[in-house]
Amino acid sequence: MKYWDNAAGAYQGIMNTGVQFPNKTNGFFVYIRGDRRATASGSTPHQATVLRTKGPLYTGPVNFTIPATSYYSIGNPYASKVDFGNVAGMSAVGSSFYVWDPLIYGSRGAGGYQTLSSATGFKPLIPTDYYDVSTAYPYLESGQAAFVYNASAAPVTLTFKESDKNTGSHLVFRGADISSSEFFRTYLSTSSGKIADGNVVAFNSSYQNRIDAYDAVKISNSGENLGLRRDGIILSIEARSPVTVYDTLYFDLKNVARADYQFRFTPQNMENETLMAFLSDNYLKTETQVSLSENTSVNFSINSDAASYAANRFMIVFRQSSTLPLTFVSIKAAQKDRNVVVYWHVENENNMQQYQVEKSNDGNHFERVATTAAKNDGSENYQWIDEDATSGYNYYRVMSLSKDNNSLYSTVEKVFVGDLKSTINIYPNPITDGIIHLQFMNQAKGRYSIRLLNHLGQVVMAKKVEFAGGNGSEDIDWNYNLNHGIYQLEVSKPDGSVEVIKVLY
User: Fold this and answer.
1) Cα–Cα distances in Å, from 106 out to 17, 88, 109, 110, 297?
2) Could you read off the pLDDT of 344-390 as tens digits, one per residue?
3) Shortest CA distance to 337 belongs to which of 396, 395, 384, 389?
4) 86-120: pLDDT as tens digits
5) Which CATH number is 423-504's, of 1.10.630.10, 2.60.40.1930, 3.40.50.300, 3.40.50.720?
């Protein structure tokens, strides 16, 4: 058995059982080697191991000396939950600490660091089953360890006292009132929807636009990392003065794979801002509007091009809302027959010139394929039909152009078009507009019997359709009284064969 000795900076070994651990107050990992037949698979033999501790408990003051410009591991010295906010000297290390959360997924499923700081009221950056981002966690549990960072040029002493022990009250460092703060949270999600990393910017008049004790330096995770770059320092929490026009948040993106990812932006207390936020992509040379009143998701891809995984690829830029009042509420693309229909809905449409639809076959290099004049009716829906859709993925985005030549891009939508053979399918699936759009491609002429069955095999809808042959579509109204779930649509063809399609609602 081995443990990591923070003071020695090395692993120390204990080769037999029943021995006493060194009297350590620093945090440490314990590695236990059991039956060598055991693997990560549950099908191999696993022998239970029982660890017991004994001996006197720590009482009275416990001191930690944090070296200058260093990270340092601290273990809770007491057999009790402690409020880290009461620990003497914490303000000297920025009132921030880092704890390991094994439920942060990432691409490796191995966990990651949660950063807890007074700048965010000690609310975690990344939501997991253990850490709720709406709840303050200024605590170290019994047996829990944390990292702190001393940015100063001199050692700092932290002192734990008996009075720091806690029975459940939620105190915070310095007792700061963060109710007036605005927060801009950013999460990085994998293609499977797992949150790999995140960061937050706190805006408050109590903070300054420079690196100080309120900013939390980022500790790198084993998988993907999404930090905030400021003055050459990578942060997980940045505390800034109230947001102003042309403020910029510089993301630092590292350790990403060649895969699809998604940003999730979650603003808090920013709905009354008169500014607008835009995600600037230095690789695709695009800007995408990010709402300051509700959550926004933006998909992006990493490929073999080094510029696609450059650490400084993305940033958030704030501008006056009068610069471009238009808002892309939604953009969707769906296959219809042999074509793809691109829909987009806008709000605050005023002083607009036109919309340009752009298409790509790889999601990176786009070309203009259509131009639509703006109606300037405030709230408006538009659509364009791509009659040259190709097999495989087709990517679409829309650029708006105002009369004073300001431009804004929508998010990117992709549609997979299968080989254009004889098929029957549904678009879109899941049902989104209250209609089953049944699509016939290269089908025979004749009568088609259609039945919709629920998960119990009960028929909830039946219909017969006379089809003229070739390509076409049939719209079937959806019954909104049906429960959400998976249904089966049976289509009996004129030749007696039956095609079954899963319908999601």
Assistant:
1) 35, 35, 6, 7, 18
2) 998 888 888 999 999 998 887 889 999 999 998 888 899 999 988 88
3) 389
4) 788 888 887 889 988 877 766 666 678 889 888 88
5) 2.60.40.1930
